[in-house]
Amino acid sequence: MTDQKCNSVHLLREASPYIHKHRGKTFVVAFPGEVVEQALFPQLIQDIATISALGSRIVIVHGTRSQINKRLEIVGRKSRFHHNIRVTEPGDIPLIQEAIGYLRITIENLLSHALNQPNLPNNSIGVSSGNYITAQPLGIIDGVDYGYTGKIRRIAHPFIAQQLDNKNIVLMSPIGYSPSGEVYNLDYEHVALSTAKALNADKIIFINDNDAHLPHEITASQIEANATASTFLKKIAKILLDGDIERVHLLNAATDGALLLELYTRDGVGSLISAKQFEHLRAATVEDISGILDLIHPLESIGTLIKRSREQLELEINNFHVIVRDQKIIACVALYNTDNPNIAELACLAVNPEYRGGNRGDKLFRHIAQLAHTQGKARLLVLTTQTTDWFRERGFEKGSVNELPTNKKSLYNYQRNSQVLFKKLA
Ligand SMILES: CC(C)(COP(=O)(O)OP(=O)(O)OC[C@H]1O[C@@H](n2cnc3c(N)ncnc32)[C@H](O)[C@@H]1OP(=O)(O)O)[C@@H](O)C(=O)NCCC(=O)NCCS
């Protein structure tokens, strides 16, 4: 098989559990107007159509700020902002409608094309947009009258849900209608988050081109405390801290296939911004010994983990790392040196049964692999009796007892007959 074919097989295998997991789930995908003008945008739309054809329910929300700015500029009108919110004059409204209409049609057109590719089995009309948002004026704040800038009063979520049930992609624009017959300009971030909340969406994914530098996970408070955070991030952080949205994903628009990689690969490519840090991973201390023992004792008694006494754990506590949630230890792992300077051992990986299936095992494994790599190790060793497949899915390969470092070989328990697995650290 060629390398390319091997990669495709590997990718399909990695993606298949996620395809199953995301079927029937609702995702709100939001991006600013600038992203629509990028060369990769048609590809993003194609990827969204693919995700819809794979059975996920998709709501797209687009922004229009840069396109509105350009239209106002062309006719010699000034864009006015206060606290980074547009002040919309009555004369701006026709130009805003033009900008939004133009973008909406551009996106609908690309989606229609993508959904009608012969390889996408989508028998529905494809894309639906409409008067889903009821808005009211933002009003006068700090003495500034925001004019036709609005805030969301209501999202017609039952109608959106109906469209999603019919397998249509819903396209939402940053505009709302009032019962009194006015049209209000809205900001797309609020449209995305309010729609997600109204629909009880499973994921909210923002795609922009400014914040590619963020770590894999970050909290809203960390963003708030960072003076250099972008206006977009500050806005999202405030919404997360104010409301009942727990987390959003952020992807870089310049990464080809970012949405597919985020949804269908184990590691993803984006950043997760959470309202609160419910739990965190840290090095263990002596205060954690009882919590670790509570976690591992049941696994020792059924033979999944080898027995460790309290005294042994006290001596080895500096090797341990734990995930703590509300001051309770819910997962642990240990990293040991061996007498081969190139090989470190991962051991005692355990997640409280109530919290399994939430990627915590994965998070601990990645943390340990990174730590061993920074310590200059080339390979990670694990000895396991019941978790071979879990480790193999994470790149471990079968080894033999003969390959064990000498101190591990001399202690190898032939009765226990553990699998010897190695992973190369890159
Ligand atoms: C193995 C373990 C650490 C995984 O923790 P976790 O936080 O649930 O792991 P993740 O959420 O990252 O992965 C969950 C996936 O692993 C799978 N999995 C769990 N245990 C497995 C096993 N023994 N073999 C193969 N796959 C397994 C789950 O079915 C789930 O698959 P899915 O994503 O397709 O639904 C946890 O199941 C555990 O504590 N097991 C008992 C202790 C143990 O065996 N430790 C390893 C000894 S070295």
Written description of the protein model:
The chain has 426 residues and is of the alpha/beta class. It folds into 2 domains: 3-274, Acetylglutamate kinase-like (Carbamate kinase, 3-Layer(aba) Sandwich); 279-424, Gcn5-related N-acetyltransferase (GNAT) (Aminopeptidase, 3-Layer(aba) Sandwich). Helix content is 38%, strand content 25%. The protein has 15 helices and 23 strands. It has helices at 3-22, 33-36, 41-53, 65-74, 93-115, 157-165, 188-199, 220-225, 231-242, 258-264, 289-301, 310-316, 360-374, 388-392, 406-411; strands spanning 26-31, 57-62, 80-82, 85-87, 127-128, 133-137, 140-141, 144-145, 150-155, 169-172, 175-177, 183-185, 203-208, 217-219, 247-252, 271-274, 279-283, 320-325, 328-337, 343-351, 379-384, 397-398, 419-424. The strands form 6 sheets. It has an 8-stranded mixed β-sheet, sandwiched between helices. The protein has a 7-stranded mixed β-sheet with strand order 17-18-19-20-21-23-22, sandwiched between helices. A hairpin with a 2-residue loop joins strand 7 (140-141) and strand 8 (144-145). It is elongated. The mean pLDDT is 92. The site of coenzyme A has 20 residues, from strand 20, helix 13, strand 21 and helix 14. The site of coenzyme A (COA) has 20 residues, from strand 20, helix 13, strand 21 and helix 14.
What topology emerges from the helices and strands here?
Layout: H1 3-22, E1 26-31, H2 33-36, H3 41-53, E2 57-62, H4 65-74, E3 80-82, E4 85-87, H5 93-115, E5 127-128, E6 133-137, E7 140-141, E8 144-145, E9 150-155, H6 157-165, E10 169-172, E11 175-177, E12 183-185, H7 188-199, E13 203-208, E14 217-219, H8 220-225, H9 231-242, E15 247-252, H10 258-264, E16 271-274, E17 279-283, H11 289-301, H12 310-316, E18 320-325, E19 328-337, E20 343-351, H13 360-374, E21 379-384, H14 388-392, E22 397-398, H15 406-411, E23 419-424
Parallel strand pairs: 1-2, 1-13, 2-10, 5-10, 13-15, 14-16, 20-21
Antiparallel strand pairs: 3-4, 6-9, 7-8, 11-12, 15-16, 17-18, 18-19, 19-20, 21-23, 22-23
This protein binds coenzyme A (COA).
